[in-house]
Amino acid sequence: MLRNNAQAHLLRRSTLALALAAGLGITGGAYAQATTGAIAGSVQPGSATTVQVSGTNGLTREVPVDAQGRYNISNLPLGTYTVSTKNNGAVVDSRKNVSIKVGGSTDVSFVAAAASASEAQSLESVTVSANTLPPIDTSQVDSRTVVTSETLARLPLGRNAEAIALLAPGAVPGSSTLGNGRFRTVSFGGSGASENAYYINGYNTTDPYKALGGVGLPYGAIDQQEVYTGGYSAKYGRSDGGVISQVGKRGTNEWHFGAQVLWEPRFAASSLGTEYYGTRGLPPGYGYQDESKVGTPYRDYKDNTKWTTTYSAYVGGPLIKDKLFFFVAAEAEKSEGDSTSSVEANPVATNHYTYNLPKYYAKLDWNINDSNILELTGIHSTDEQRGVYTGYDYDTRSHTGLTGADANTSKITSKFAIAKYTSYITDDLTLSATYAKGWTDDYLNNPTPNIDSQPYINFPENQNPAITGGTPITNLNPSNQTQDPRAGSRTHGLRIDLDWQVGDHHLAGGIDNMHYRGIDEGIATSGPGYYWQYGHSANPDTPISGALGAGAPGGDGYYVSQRIFSSVTNMSLDQRAQYLEDRWQVTDKVLVSIGIRNDGFKNFNDKNKPYVNNQAQWAPRIGATWDVFGDSSLKIYGNLGRYYLALPNNVAVRGASPSTLTYEYFNYTGIDQYGRPTGLTSLSANGPASPDGEYGQAVDAQAVAARDLKSQYQDEAIFGFDKQLGSAWVTGAKVTVRKLRTAIDDVCDTAKIGDKMTREGLDPDSVNIPGCVIFNPGSTNTFSLANLDGSGRTEVKMNQEDWGFSQKAKRAYYALDLYLDHPYDGKWQGRIDYTFSRSYGNTEGQTKSDIGQTDISKTQDWDSAELMRSANGLLSNDRTHQLKAYGAYSLTDEWMVSGNLRLASGSPKECLGYEDALADSDPIGYGSSYHNCNGKPSPPGVKRNPWFKQLDLAVTYRPAIFDGKAAFGLQVFNVSNERKPLNSFSTYESDTPMTVLNNYDLGQFYQAPRYARLTATYDF
């Protein structure tokens, strides 16, 4: 669908397959999106009858030792444990301070031959000795990165889930154009930024409307964050990108409290300077929209700095020792700063903004008894942005005082209530259930006085200077967007898992259901319900748009268009899944995981009518690990899997529900004091026209999507190894291949349906053909159209050739990841990752980052065959080379230094223009949206943005006088003050062909210049 110009885990049960002693090759179950971990190992046969674990969380579990001396204890809440062997009730030996990792298996063995190497093989365990071998968890068949709270405390990182996720190999930042910088997103393995899933304590906290980002915990409340990049269990689905799963801290038998203050001062922040329009020459016949701008300032960033203050605190402990615990954390982050708009913006002003991001987290844990646990979690997160404008004069580079206008106030408030029950029915049988609800309010409005009577004025710099005297005329309306004040979402979900150990088989089965409801979501045009967009043609005798019936402006080429957009609606979505899985310890060294998942997705429109109903979507998963030498020193692993992706609620907006998008073009003879054109003469032969036929009409739910529509799904293969190097290092490599098998988008050239009917002897005038329909690009789809005489419906099959497409939907990703890791040993840690990858094809996925389009699965790609000519190339999230490194070193007991380095190839560039080499350069009325520049094909990725380079450093001081409880730190981000563009403007021409936009190829969003953070922390 044409981009509107007004829009510039789940509960994861960690189970252990039958474990073998360290000398025999211990393996254990590990799944993605977990909230628990496992402890496994072996004892000298005959030396003990049971093994007991006792946690600081009050939990005690005791399991028998088998005839070979093996034991496993799975589904343990995260925490610190004492592991003891017992012989007929008497303690024989113990290991203390054993920490476990989410989704992993910690090896705690008591075999004499292995004792020197494996007292407690856990990366963060305080009992790890200098000669302890780095652990390789041979129970894992997936690809994931687990970051603990200890690592977070050491490294200089942004204080959000996405910054942590970027530590994972191959992860890249999502384009800042998505949501115009409002959302933080990440791309994993070449997938679109909306194709990920977020979880907190086992519940899905992904943005319920567009799936762009999700809610995270207060930074200090994160116990561990699991970043999952492929190969996950059949227990989990609805993501073909990656998973960000956070597990929050919990209370223990010891009281703990602490507080932290962080300050990012303005005096320590750098700025970008000034960005200038390009001076490149243009081919014959082409002209800039405004020749006078060439080489002049486009945007002044020199005073654009920000300062941030964050206060956080926590407290946790026992309400009833060994029985009832609580943990509460709060974080209040406030940022203030200045942001001067470009010379093209309206208003041309400096926004003095304030961001407030408070977060609250509370957890209650009740050990009903040693066999039953109840966990309750509450989360409250707010993202509020507001600001006021002062005018900015680009001629004098000075501020001109308050304009009387305010920036949009946006406020996203998310609340979650999560309940999880775990029952250890027997030593081999565990039942868990999670039920949760979520509430999201999405507010966007503008508090400027009398805004309802003032239409937004877009591109006022294109007003006719003969009328304005060269000074653009505007009003106080600073935004063309608003939302219904009731906009928001409601969610609820139920998950039930049953895990059963039967000999060498760990069997699992369960259900995973979610429901989403969107309330008055979408965008409306601010002010009186329309806005004015001024334009200027370098070729005044060329029609503005033949497809829209807009003629040539004539004269000096000045014209204006009235634009109306509205997409506010309701919708809902049901997701249901069932799964079965068997993790089979085939031999002492080989573990095989075989699973099958059945996903069902059902989307409803504003009338509660289903328009997509995908059921019986079977996703097989198979993985295997080989503990080559039986001592966990070399693991070879691989997996194959299929992953289905649901359509989020946003698809109903402009897809399955009424919407309006119309343009009408005019000449004008005057402009009034509010920037409104006067003396109008219409250039649109048929009045207001809509490129996609959006006139607010009711939508036929049965016709809007193909009746045999398939969900987007992707196949994935991973093969790799992990190897110990000496006594302190681990290295490894893996190859990942991903192939998108089916995509979903919309096609708006629906006159082709009428053409097909005519060829088959049917009358296209006898049915109601929608302006756009949702389909699988490249596949044969069946559409059910209502007969206009009320006699029933007519079905029409459309294949790739019927639409005129020459290729199917294509997205392919392959990568080679190499790493070298030195786990923290009490003195230092370090890791380096290198990824070589390629992401290429003709569809990014559900979004279109190059123009910032967030109409999920309704992008302008595939709207017609013309738009897909020369569309095959490097995709927006491609980064050929990536190098990541981080580490920390204790200089003394009081001083530590740490750092984080990221180097990456720049993002691919696009050039979208008119088809100027053809007789009709805009055959479908989409303007400058074709893969064509200067009359020549322009596939994406021929050129790239500059390399991304960033080094962050930190120093931490823990004075001995405070017994290590107090810490003072300095973190410097982007030490070398790199200021490279993250992406560039990709639209080449203006509203009229061969009129080149002055800002084409300029940087649109940049990496943050150097800034510093001062911290003071106290933990008791």
What would you note in describing this structure?
This protein has 1020 residues and is mainly beta. It contains five helices and 59 strands. The strands form 14 sheets. The chain has a 22-stranded antiparallel barrel. The radius of gyration is 30 Å and the shape is globular. It starts with 35 loop residues before the first strand and ends with a strand.
Topology at a glance:
Layout: E1 36-42, E2 50-55, E3 60-64, E4 70-77, E5 80-87, E6 90-99, E7 105-107, E8 143-148, H1 149-154, H2 161-165, E9 172-173, E10 186-187, E11 197-200, E12 203-204, E13 222-230, E14 243-248, E15 256-264, E16 274-276, E17 287-288, E18 297-300, E19 306-320, E20 324-340, E21 349-369, E22 372-393, E23 398-406, E24 409-424, E25 429-445, E26 457-458, H3 465-468, E27 481-482, E28 488-502, E29 505-521, E30 524-525, E31 531-536, E32 558-566, E33 569-585, E34 590-604, E35 610-627, E36 634-645, E37 660-667, E38 670-671, E39 677-678, E40 681-682, E41 712-725, E42 729-742, E43 745-747, H4 751-759, E44 773-775, E45 781-786, E46 793-798, H5 800-803, E47 811-822, E48 828-841, E49 873-874, E50 881-890, E51 895-904, E52 932-933, E53 936-937, E54 948-957, E55 966-973, E56 981-984, E57 995-996, E58 1003-1006, E59 1011-1019
Parallel strand pairs: 1-7, 11-14, 17-57, 26-31
Antiparallel strand pairs: 1-4, 2-3, 2-5, 5-6, 8-13, 9-10, 11-12, 13-14, 15-19, 15-59, 16-18, 19-20, 20-21, 21-22, 22-23, 22-24, 24-25, 25-28, 27-30, 28-29, 29-33, 31-32, 32-37, 33-34, 34-35, 35-36, 36-41, 37-40, 38-39, 41-42, 42-47, 43-44, 45-46, 47-48, 48-49, 48-50, 50-51, 51-54, 52-53, 54-55, ...
